[in-house]
Design a protein that fits this description.
Elements: E1 3-12, E2 17-19, H1 20-23, H2 31-38, E3 42-44, H3 50-65, E4 74-78, H4 89-97, E5 103-107, H5 113-126, E6 132-140, H6 150-153, E7 158-168, E8 173-181, E9 189-192, E10 209-212, H7 214-235, E11 245-248, H8 253-262, H9 274-277, H10 284-294, E12 303-310, E13 314-321, H11 343-346, H12 348-356
Parallel strand pairs: 4-5, 4-6, 11-12
Antiparallel strand pairs: 1-7, 2-3, 6-7, 8-13, 9-10, 12-13
Helix pairs in contact: 3-4, 7-8
Domain Beta-ketoacyl-[acyl-carrier-protein] synthase III N-terminal: 106-182
Pfam family, one: ACP_syn_III_C
Active site: 111, 249, 279
């Protein structure tokens, strides 16, 4: 049987940091208020678009895997903040990587998007339809944020993470997954005034913003991620003590801690970086997994559990058996994109517009 080994990992986190103290200069909030409720201390604000972030993360993953872009059969970009709807963002990523050989597709499942994409690419490799895939989660969530609405403005950030998958004979990669969607509650987390569901001419759409019913989402996230994880563990005959590392979606520290407690895992068995990046939607899992490998938290043969929850309401969990590759095949220094502005300077026009119209 053929498996889909994860052989390369990469990320791009924009250099401009927006701290809780920065937010407090233009909205009624504080570091204590944000930190105690979310675990977030700062988030990144991008000066480049989603495709460029995705391509930079992809380049790093390809280099570390020792794979050329021309060798990739499939590029999946999980995003709910695409540069364009037509053509798709994945085709732009392909172009930035300098190749025209791969199939390209965008996948929109919000925060669960990377797990959806990972399962899709893994299934194609295991079916023998492709040999190599580049799976990317990339989001520019700051573009949608209404900076006059505190409850959502403090949550989101920008970034991208990527993984290279290659066909392998040894049993590794994503071995079990459970994905789903609770569409009965899809309206409790949505981006307003966007899409063809509205009348474009008779009722011109208002400003974009993220509608977010926090308490209800918290309950459903804990339930959805927990149920999916239990299903995966049961199907894979795993016990809590078999898990070496939990890499959850980074939406809220309390959600992460609740899932960690259910699995009876120690702090060192749970990858947490929400304090640095906030919620980057589909990018949180690959960024966290990439950092876990970089920090030596992942060893060859480790059992990794990941879980996520997002708009839709999508949910999912996956069991990854890490392969032998825990060291980059090529040294790679992340290409930095010049940015001579602070996060607040990048957002100045958006902040002015939002705060004056709320």
């Amino acid at each position: 049987m053929q498996y889909a080994d994860i052989t390369g990992w990469g990320k791009y986190t924009p250099p401009a940091k927006l701290s809780n103290e920065d937010l407090a200069t233009f909205m009624d909030t504080s570091d204590e208020w944000i930190s105690s409720r979310t675990g977030i201390k700062e988030r990144r604000i991008s000066h480049i678009n989603t495709a460029h972030m995705a391509a930079l993360a992809g380049k790093q993953a390809l280099a570390r895997a020792g794979v050329e872009a021309d060798d990739i059969d499939l590029i999946i970009v999980a995003t709910c903040t695409p540069d364009t709807l037509v053509p798709n963002t994945a085709s732009k990523v392909q172009n930035l990587l300098g190749t025209n050989n791969s199939a390209c597709v965008d996948l929109s499942s919000a925060c669960t998007g990377f797990l959806y994409a990972l399962q899709n690419a893994t299934a194609q490799i295991r079916a023998g339809m492709i040999n190599k895939a580049l799976v990317i989660g990339a989001e520019r969530m700051s573009w949608f944020v209404n900076w006059g609405v505190r409850d959502t403005a403090v949550l989101f950030g920008d970034g991208a993470g990527a993984m290279v998958l290659e066909a392998a004979d040894n049993k590794c990669g994503l071995l079990e997954a459970k994905l789903g969607c609770d569409s009965s509650a899809r309206d409790i987390l949505n981006i307003t005034n966007f899409g063809t569901d509205m009348d474009r001419y008779e009722n011109p759409p208002g400003p974009l913003q993220i509608d977010f019913l926090g308490p209800e989402i918290f309950k459903r996230a804990v339930r959805g991620m927990g149920k999916a994880t239990e299903t995966v563990m049961s199907n894979a005959n795993l016990k809590a003590e078999d898990i070496d590392l939990l890499v959850p979606h980074q939406a809220n520290l309390r959600i992460i801690e609740t899932l960690q407690s259910k699995l009876k895992l120690k702090d060192e068995q749970c990858m947490v970086n929400i304090q640095k990046y906030g919620n980057t939607s589909a990018a949180t899992v690959p960024i966290a997994l990439c950092e876990a490998v970089e920090q030596g938290k992942v060893k060859a043969g480790d059992t990794i559990m990941s879980a996520a929850f997002g708009a839709g309401l999508t949910w999912g969990a996956g069991y990854i058996k890490w392969g032998d590759n825990v060291s980059p095949k090529n040294d790679y220094v992340q290409e930095e994109q010049d940015c001579n502005k602070t996060a607040k300077e990048l957002l100045a026009v958006a902040i002015k517009h939002c705060t004056e119209n709320n």
